[in-house]
């Protein structure tokens, strides 16, 4: 992101890229220091108890003229980068329940985003899909067909679909009806829930 022409000042709505997410808020003050202009931004309530104000270089902020133009969380993160983030979240947990993690796994002639196996022999196949809008039934169908190809290698494998967007009710009904667990990853705060869901899938008995 870069500062648009004209100074961003108090009262201006802005978006700031922070790590793997976009934060949106209102500029409450602007000041200069030796390294350049900085903005103090009051963030919109994210409902997670995080900081309500941040200070960032002015060049890191972009004006928001239309709230619908704010990129969906994680939308600029390539699927490979998201797979790495998910892999890291497993590595950083108490992963005694994990036997092997294989990102971007080639099995036969098909590449799978992430394979995770447990000491009990169970395997979870993770399919990652980034989207600009809630996951539709059409996309859910493509996810299912990708996952089901693994059945020829391991009929007992479990499936987990991860997207940066919510799954529409119809898409969730379709996937859940085919035995696919769904998870929405919007930023790093969702890592804990992802790990919890994955652990449950690997350790629960059929």
TrEMBL record:
Write down the superkingdom of origin. Answer: Bacteria
InterPro entries according to UniProt: Restrct_endonuc-II-like
> This chain belongs to which protein, by name?
Uncharacterized protein
Task: Spell out the residue ranges making up region: Disordered.
Answer: 46-74
Taxonomic classification, please? Answer: Bacteria, Bacillati, Actinomycetota, Actinomycetes, Cryptosporangiales
């Amino acid at each position: 992101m870069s500062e648009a022409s004209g100074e961003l000042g108090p009262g201006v709505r802005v978006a700031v890229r922070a790590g793997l997410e976009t934060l949106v808020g209102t500029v409450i003050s602007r000041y200069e220091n030796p390294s350049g202009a900085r903005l103090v931004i009051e963030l919109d309530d994210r409902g997670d108890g995080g900081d309500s104000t941040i200070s960032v270089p002015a060049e890191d902020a972009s004006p928001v003229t239309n709230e619908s133009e704010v990129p969906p969380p994680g939308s600029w993160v390539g699927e490979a980068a998201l797979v790495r983030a998910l892999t890291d979240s497993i590595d950083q947990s108490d992963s005694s329940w994990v036997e092997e993690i294989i990102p971007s796994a080639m099995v036969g002639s098909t590449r799978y985003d992430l394979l995770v196996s447990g000491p009990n022999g169970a395997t979870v196949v993770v399919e990652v899909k980034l989207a600009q809008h809630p996951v539709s039934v059409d996309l859910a169908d493509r996810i299912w067909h990708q996952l089901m190809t693994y059945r020829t290698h391991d009929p007992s494998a479990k499936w987990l679909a991860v997207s940066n967007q919510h799954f529409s009710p119809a898409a969730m009904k379709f996937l859940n009806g085919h035995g696919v667990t769904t998870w929405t990853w919007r930023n790093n705060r969702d890592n804990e829930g992802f790990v919890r869901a994955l652990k449950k899938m690997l350790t629960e008995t059929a």
